[in-house]
Amino acid sequence: MSAVTLIDGKAAAARVIAEVTDEVKVFKANGIAPALAVVLVGEDPASQVYVRNKVRRAEECGIRSLEFELPSQCQAGRLLALIDTLNADASVHGILVQLPLPAHIDEHLVLQAIAPVKDVDGFHAANVGGLTQGREVLTPCTPAGCLRLLQDTCGDLSGKHAVVIGRSNIVGKPMAALLLKAHCTVTVVHSRSTHLPELCRLADIVVAAVGRPRLVKGDWLKDGAVVIDVGINRLDEGGRARLVGDVDFDSACTRAAAITPVPGGVGPMTIALLMKNTLAAARLQHSSVDRSQPAMEIPA
Question: What is the mean pLDDT of the chain?
Protein backbone atom coordinates (compact mmCIF):
# COMPACT_ATOMS: atom_id res chain seq x y z
CA MET A 1 0.00 0.00 0.00
CA SER A 2 1.06 3.67 -0.40
CA ALA A 3 2.78 5.65 2.34
CA VAL A 4 0.73 6.40 5.43
CA THR A 5 -0.73 9.89 5.87
CA LEU A 6 0.10 11.57 9.17
CA ILE A 7 -2.95 13.37 10.56
CA ASP A 8 -1.61 16.74 11.68
CA GLY A 9 -3.47 17.70 14.85
CA LYS A 10 -1.58 20.98 15.16
CA ALA A 11 -2.70 22.14 11.74
CA ALA A 12 -6.28 21.00 12.37
CA ALA A 13 -6.33 22.77 15.74
CA ALA A 14 -5.08 25.94 14.08
CA ARG A 15 -8.02 25.78 11.65
CA VAL A 16 -10.47 25.38 14.55
CA ILE A 17 -8.90 28.30 16.41
CA ALA A 18 -9.20 30.44 13.28
CA GLU A 19 -12.91 29.54 13.08
CA VAL A 20 -13.38 30.40 16.75
CA THR A 21 -11.60 33.73 16.35
CA ASP A 22 -13.96 34.66 13.50
CA GLU A 23 -16.99 33.52 15.48
CA VAL A 24 -15.93 35.57 18.52
CA LYS A 25 -16.13 38.66 16.31
CA VAL A 26 -19.77 37.78 15.52
CA PHE A 27 -20.57 37.55 19.23
CA LYS A 28 -18.87 40.86 19.97
CA ALA A 29 -20.72 42.49 17.09
CA ASN A 30 -23.88 41.41 18.91
CA GLY A 31 -22.67 42.97 22.16
CA ILE A 32 -21.61 39.70 23.78
CA ALA A 33 -18.08 39.03 25.05
CA PRO A 34 -17.69 35.22 25.35
CA ALA A 35 -16.08 34.34 28.67
CA LEU A 36 -14.56 31.17 30.09
CA ALA A 37 -13.98 30.63 33.82
CA VAL A 38 -11.29 28.11 34.74
CA VAL A 39 -11.11 26.85 38.33
CA LEU A 40 -7.95 25.22 39.69
CA VAL A 41 -7.89 23.55 43.10
CA GLY A 42 -4.44 22.82 44.50
CA GLU A 43 -0.92 23.21 43.19
CA ASP A 44 -0.49 20.19 40.92
CA PRO A 45 2.22 21.25 38.41
CA ALA A 46 0.65 19.43 35.44
CA SER A 47 -2.75 20.99 36.15
CA GLN A 48 -1.15 24.43 36.40
CA VAL A 49 0.40 23.94 32.94
CA TYR A 50 -2.92 22.79 31.47
CA VAL A 51 -4.73 25.80 32.92
CA ARG A 52 -2.11 28.24 31.60
CA ASN A 53 -2.39 26.71 28.13
CA LYS A 54 -6.18 26.96 28.16
CA VAL A 55 -6.15 30.57 29.36
CA ARG A 56 -3.52 31.56 26.78
CA ARG A 57 -5.46 29.93 23.95
CA ALA A 58 -8.69 31.64 25.02
CA GLU A 59 -6.99 35.03 24.99
CA GLU A 60 -5.58 34.32 21.51
CA CYS A 61 -9.13 33.73 20.26
CA GLY A 62 -10.51 36.86 21.89
CA ILE A 63 -12.38 34.91 24.57
CA ARG A 64 -12.29 36.58 27.98
CA SER A 65 -10.72 34.26 30.54
CA LEU A 66 -11.20 34.27 34.29
CA GLU A 67 -8.93 32.23 36.57
CA PHE A 68 -9.86 31.09 40.05
CA GLU A 69 -7.28 29.33 42.22
CA LEU A 70 -8.25 27.60 45.45
CA PRO A 71 -5.86 25.92 47.91
CA SER A 72 -5.67 22.13 47.93
CA GLN A 73 -7.05 21.97 51.47
CA CYS A 74 -10.20 23.94 50.66
CA GLN A 75 -13.46 22.24 51.47
CA ALA A 76 -15.98 21.19 48.86
CA GLY A 77 -18.47 23.79 50.09
CA ARG A 78 -16.16 26.63 49.10
CA LEU A 79 -15.71 25.22 45.60
CA LEU A 80 -19.44 24.60 45.20
CA ALA A 81 -20.20 28.15 46.34
CA LEU A 82 -17.84 29.50 43.67
CA ILE A 83 -19.55 27.36 41.02
CA ASP A 84 -22.96 28.66 42.15
CA THR A 85 -21.68 32.22 41.76
CA LEU A 86 -20.35 31.52 38.26
CA ASN A 87 -23.59 29.74 37.29
CA ALA A 88 -25.54 32.86 38.26
CA ASP A 89 -23.19 35.28 36.46
CA ALA A 90 -24.67 35.96 33.02
CA SER A 91 -21.34 37.36 31.78
CA VAL A 92 -19.68 33.92 32.25
CA HIS A 93 -20.54 31.49 29.47
CA GLY A 94 -18.32 28.50 30.21
CA ILE A 95 -17.11 26.93 33.45
CA LEU A 96 -14.27 24.42 33.61
CA VAL A 97 -13.04 22.83 36.83
CA GLN A 98 -9.58 21.41 36.19
CA LEU A 99 -9.27 17.72 37.06
CA PRO A 100 -8.12 15.85 39.05
CA LEU A 101 -9.44 17.35 42.27
CA PRO A 102 -7.93 16.69 45.71
CA ALA A 103 -9.01 13.31 47.07
CA HIS A 104 -11.28 14.78 49.76
CA ILE A 105 -13.54 16.51 47.20
CA ASP A 106 -16.23 14.49 45.43
CA GLU A 107 -15.48 15.01 41.73
CA HIS A 108 -18.92 13.82 40.60
CA LEU A 109 -20.69 16.22 42.96
CA VAL A 110 -18.64 19.13 41.66
CA LEU A 111 -19.16 18.34 37.97
CA GLN A 112 -22.92 17.98 38.44
CA ALA A 113 -23.04 21.38 40.15
CA ILE A 114 -22.02 23.17 36.94
CA ALA A 115 -25.01 24.41 34.94
CA PRO A 116 -25.36 22.13 31.88
CA VAL A 117 -25.36 25.11 29.48
CA LYS A 118 -22.02 26.26 30.93
CA ASP A 119 -20.46 22.78 31.16
CA VAL A 120 -17.78 23.20 28.48
CA ASP A 121 -16.16 19.88 29.44
CA GLY A 122 -19.43 18.08 28.59
CA PHE A 123 -19.34 15.97 31.77
CA HIS A 124 -22.70 16.90 33.32
CA ALA A 125 -25.23 14.06 33.33
CA ALA A 126 -27.67 16.16 31.27
CA ASN A 127 -25.08 16.59 28.52
CA VAL A 128 -23.98 12.96 28.68
CA GLY A 129 -27.59 11.83 28.35
CA GLY A 130 -28.29 14.30 25.57
CA LEU A 131 -25.29 13.04 23.62
CA THR A 132 -26.52 9.46 23.77
CA GLN A 133 -29.87 10.69 22.42
CA GLY A 134 -28.15 12.43 19.53
CA ARG A 135 -29.12 15.92 20.65
CA GLU A 136 -27.00 19.06 20.30
CA VAL A 137 -25.30 19.38 23.67
CA LEU A 138 -21.89 20.34 25.00
CA THR A 139 -19.63 17.37 24.26
CA PRO A 140 -16.31 16.27 25.83
CA CYS A 141 -13.52 18.05 24.00
CA THR A 142 -11.16 15.17 23.25
CA PRO A 143 -13.67 12.91 21.46
CA ALA A 144 -15.12 15.95 19.67
CA GLY A 145 -11.60 16.73 18.48
CA CYS A 146 -11.14 13.13 17.33
CA LEU A 147 -14.36 13.34 15.33
CA ARG A 148 -13.19 16.54 13.66
CA LEU A 149 -9.91 14.86 12.67
CA LEU A 150 -11.81 11.89 11.24
CA GLN A 151 -14.18 14.10 9.26
CA ASP A 152 -11.29 16.17 7.92
CA THR A 153 -9.48 12.98 6.89
CA CYS A 154 -12.31 10.74 5.69
CA GLY A 155 -15.14 13.09 4.82
CA ASP A 156 -18.52 11.38 5.26
CA LEU A 157 -18.22 8.65 7.91
CA SER A 158 -21.57 7.01 7.09
CA GLY A 159 -21.41 3.22 6.99
CA LYS A 160 -17.84 2.92 8.21
CA HIS A 161 -17.06 0.38 10.92
CA ALA A 162 -15.35 2.02 13.88
CA VAL A 163 -13.74 0.17 16.78
CA VAL A 164 -13.27 2.23 19.93
CA ILE A 165 -10.74 0.73 22.33
CA GLY A 166 -11.64 1.93 25.81
CA ARG A 167 -14.89 2.75 27.59
CA SER A 168 -14.01 5.71 29.81
CA ASN A 169 -16.59 8.40 30.49
CA ILE A 170 -14.18 11.05 29.22
CA VAL A 171 -13.24 9.54 25.84
CA GLY A 172 -14.45 6.02 25.02
CA LYS A 173 -18.18 6.30 25.67
CA PRO A 174 -18.71 9.78 24.19
CA MET A 175 -16.51 8.82 21.22
CA ALA A 176 -18.79 5.87 20.51
CA ALA A 177 -21.86 8.11 20.77
CA LEU A 178 -20.39 10.67 18.36
CA LEU A 179 -19.49 7.98 15.84
CA LEU A 180 -23.01 6.55 16.05
CA LYS A 181 -24.41 10.03 15.40
CA ALA A 182 -22.11 10.20 12.37
CA HIS A 183 -23.80 6.99 11.13
CA CYS A 184 -20.89 4.61 11.76
CA THR A 185 -21.25 1.02 12.86
CA VAL A 186 -19.53 1.07 16.25
CA THR A 187 -17.87 -1.64 18.31
CA VAL A 188 -16.55 -0.76 21.77
CA VAL A 189 -13.88 -3.04 23.20
CA HIS A 190 -12.30 -2.93 26.63
CA SER A 191 -10.34 -4.88 29.24
CA ARG A 192 -12.94 -7.68 29.38
CA SER A 193 -13.27 -8.05 25.61
CA THR A 194 -12.01 -11.19 23.92
CA HIS A 195 -10.45 -11.57 20.47
CA LEU A 196 -9.36 -7.93 20.48
CA PRO A 197 -6.96 -8.15 17.49
CA GLU A 198 -9.59 -9.89 15.38
CA LEU A 199 -12.19 -7.24 16.18
CA CYS A 200 -9.77 -4.44 15.32
CA ARG A 201 -9.01 -6.03 11.94
CA LEU A 202 -12.66 -5.51 10.98
CA ALA A 203 -12.45 -1.76 11.48
CA ASP A 204 -12.24 1.02 8.94
CA ILE A 205 -11.55 3.35 11.89
CA VAL A 206 -9.71 2.51 15.11
CA VAL A 207 -9.77 4.91 18.06
CA ALA A 208 -7.41 3.83 20.85
CA ALA A 209 -7.97 5.40 24.30
CA VAL A 210 -6.88 3.05 27.07
CA GLY A 211 -3.62 4.45 28.43
CA ARG A 212 -1.55 1.35 27.63
CA PRO A 213 1.60 2.17 25.65
CA ARG A 214 1.82 0.56 22.21
CA LEU A 215 -1.04 -1.84 22.90
CA VAL A 216 -2.34 -1.82 19.33
CA LYS A 217 0.08 -3.57 16.95
CA GLY A 218 0.27 -3.14 13.22
CA ASP A 219 -1.06 -6.64 12.58
CA TRP A 220 -4.22 -5.69 14.50
CA LEU A 221 -5.16 -3.36 11.65
CA LYS A 222 -6.64 -4.06 8.27
CA ASP A 223 -4.98 -2.44 5.30
CA GLY A 224 -6.21 1.10 4.81
CA ALA A 225 -7.56 1.66 8.32
CA VAL A 226 -7.61 5.17 9.77
CA VAL A 227 -6.14 5.25 13.29
CA ILE A 228 -6.78 7.86 15.96
CA ASP A 229 -4.39 7.43 18.90
CA VAL A 230 -5.65 9.23 22.01
CA GLY A 231 -3.06 7.72 24.36
CA ILE A 232 -0.26 9.79 25.88
CA ASN A 233 2.15 7.58 27.81
CA ARG A 234 5.53 8.64 29.16
CA LEU A 235 8.20 5.96 28.90
CA ASP A 236 11.83 5.88 29.96
CA GLU A 237 13.76 4.42 27.04
CA GLY A 238 17.54 4.32 27.24
CA GLY A 239 17.54 6.88 30.02
CA ARG A 240 15.44 9.34 28.01
CA ALA A 241 11.80 10.20 28.57
CA ARG A 242 9.61 9.66 25.52
CA LEU A 243 5.92 10.15 24.83
CA VAL A 244 4.21 7.29 23.01
CA GLY A 245 0.61 6.48 22.22
CA ASP A 246 -1.61 3.45 22.74
CA VAL A 247 -0.71 2.37 19.20
CA ASP A 248 2.64 0.90 18.16
CA PHE A 249 3.25 3.68 15.67
CA ASP A 250 5.99 2.11 13.55
CA SER A 251 4.19 -1.16 12.90
CA ALA A 252 0.82 0.58 12.47
CA CYS A 253 2.28 2.72 9.70
CA THR A 254 2.81 -0.41 7.60
CA ARG A 255 -0.96 -1.06 7.48
CA ALA A 256 -2.83 2.19 8.14
CA ALA A 257 -3.86 4.68 5.48
CA ALA A 258 -3.75 7.54 8.00
CA ILE A 259 -2.73 7.86 11.65
CA THR A 260 -2.34 10.51 14.33
CA PRO A 261 1.19 10.85 15.74
CA VAL A 262 1.93 11.18 19.45
CA PRO A 263 2.59 13.95 20.25
CA GLY A 264 1.08 16.30 17.70
CA GLY A 265 -2.10 14.42 16.89
CA VAL A 266 -5.15 14.45 19.17
CA GLY A 267 -3.58 16.57 21.93
CA PRO A 268 -3.75 19.99 20.25
CA MET A 269 -7.39 19.41 19.33
CA THR A 270 -8.59 19.15 22.93
CA ILE A 271 -7.96 22.79 23.81
CA ALA A 272 -9.14 23.95 20.37
CA LEU A 273 -12.48 22.19 20.90
CA LEU A 274 -12.70 23.69 24.39
CA MET A 275 -12.69 27.09 22.73
CA LYS A 276 -15.36 25.87 20.29
CA ASN A 277 -17.42 24.59 23.22
CA THR A 278 -17.17 27.96 24.96
CA LEU A 279 -18.81 29.59 21.96
CA ALA A 280 -21.40 26.81 21.76
CA ALA A 281 -22.21 27.46 25.42
CA ALA A 282 -22.52 31.20 24.78
CA ARG A 283 -24.81 30.50 21.82
CA LEU A 284 -27.03 28.32 24.02
CA GLN A 285 -27.35 31.21 26.46
CA HIS A 286 -28.05 33.98 23.93
CA SER A 287 -30.62 34.04 21.15
CA SER A 288 -29.31 37.23 19.53
CA VAL A 289 -26.22 35.64 17.99
CA ASP A 290 -26.38 34.58 14.32
CA ARG A 291 -27.91 31.11 14.49
CA SER A 292 -26.43 30.21 11.10
CA GLN A 293 -23.15 29.68 12.91
CA PRO A 294 -22.84 25.98 13.86
CA ALA A 295 -23.32 25.49 17.59
CA MET A 296 -21.51 22.19 17.85
CA GLU A 297 -19.08 19.95 16.05
CA ILE A 298 -21.59 17.11 15.92
CA PRO A 299 -22.83 16.22 12.44
CA ALA A 300 -26.55 16.33 11.74
Answer: 94
